[in-house]
Amino acid sequence: MLTKRDLLKSSVAAAALAAVAGRTDRAVAQEIAQLQVFVPAAPGGGWDQTARTIEQVLKAEKLIGNAQITNVGGAGGAVGLPQFVNQWRGRQNAIMVAGMVMVGALIANKSPVKLIQTVPVARLTGEAEVLVVPASSPIKSAKEFATALKADPKKMSCAGGSAGGTDHILLGMIGKALGVPAAQLTYVAYPGGGPALAAVLGGHVAVAISGWGEFSEQIKAGKIRPLAVSSPDRIEGIDVPTLKQEGIEVDLMNWRGVFAPPGVNAQQRQAMITLIEKMANSATWKAEVKKRDWTPILLTGDEYGKFIEAETARIEAILKDLGLA
Fold first, then answer.
1. For residue 72, what are the contacts with CB-CB under 8 A and spacing of at least 6?
2. For the chain, which domains are there?
3. Do 37 and 121 meet the contact criterion of CB atoms below 8 Å apart?
4. Can you tell me the distance from the alpha carbon of 112 to that of 163, in angstroms, rounded to the nearest whole number?
5. What is the pLDDT of residue 11?
6. What is the pLDDT of residues 187-229, one digit of tens each?
7. Helix (H, G, I), strand (E, B) or coil at 132
C-alpha cells in the first residue's frame, strides 16, 4: 500500500520529469527555430520545389520560425553532397532534400562521397515521371514517340536531369523495352527540371523527361504536351496514359526525402524526425501533396536508412544493365 510519503515522492518525481520534458521541448524548438535547408540542385527543380514546400508548411504550422535555403547544383547532387557532408557536419538545425536522382548520379559519376554518409531522416514523397514534347511537335502520343525512337534514335534527343538520375534511367529503360541500345540514345543532361523544361520549350531537344510536378504548370498552360507518365497506374485526376498503356512495358516512380548532416547525435536526429513527422501528418502538408500530385510514402529513421541501402544496390544494377555505370 502506498503511504503518504510514497505519494509525495511520486509527485516530486513526476514534477521533475515534467520539468525536464518541458526543457527538452523548449530546447528542441530552439534548435529548429532557424532551419537551414540544403538543396544539391539548381532552383526550380523537384528537390527545390520540395524544399520550398517544406519551408512553407513548417512556417504555416508554426513548427519553425524561419528557414534559409541554399542551392548548390551540378551532376545530380554529386557536386553539392560533399559540401553538405563536410561543411555542414554537425549542424543540428540543418537538413538536405534529395532523392532517387542523387543515388543514380553518384554511381554514374563514380563519386567518392556516398549518400549513406549522411543521416537519413525521412522519405517523404513519390512522384511519377512524365515524357513531354513541345506543343508544336508533330508527335502526338507515346506510341508515335516509340516509333520515331526506333526509326532514328539520334533525332529523338531527350532533355532531363543529371546523368545517371531518374530521368536518364527512365529513358534507358524505355530504350531497352523498345530494343534500342543505350549507346544509341541521345540524352542531354541539365542541372534540374527547370533548365530541361527551357530546353524543350526552346526546341533544343525533341522530348524531355522530368517529374510531373516540375512540368505540370506548363502542361496546364498548353505549352508542352504530355505523352505518358511512368507510374504503374494512371494518376487520379490526370488524363494522361501510362507508358504501359501506350505499349511501352516500363514503370518507375521517383522518390524524395530528407537527410541530416553527419555528426548529429541520436537526440538531434530524433528531434528532426519528430519535426518532419509533425509536418507530414499536418493537413497543410497533405493539401500540398495532393495539389502537386505527389504520393505520400513516409518512412523514417533506421527503416529509411535500410531503404537507402537497398535502393542504392537496385539502381546500381539498373545502371550497369543500361551501360550507364
1. 38, 39, 40, 41, 79, 80, 83
2. 28-126+254-322 (3.40.190.150), 128-253 (3.40.190.10)
3. no
4. 16
5. 45
6. 999 887 889 999 999 999 999 999 898 899 999 999 999 999 9
7. strand
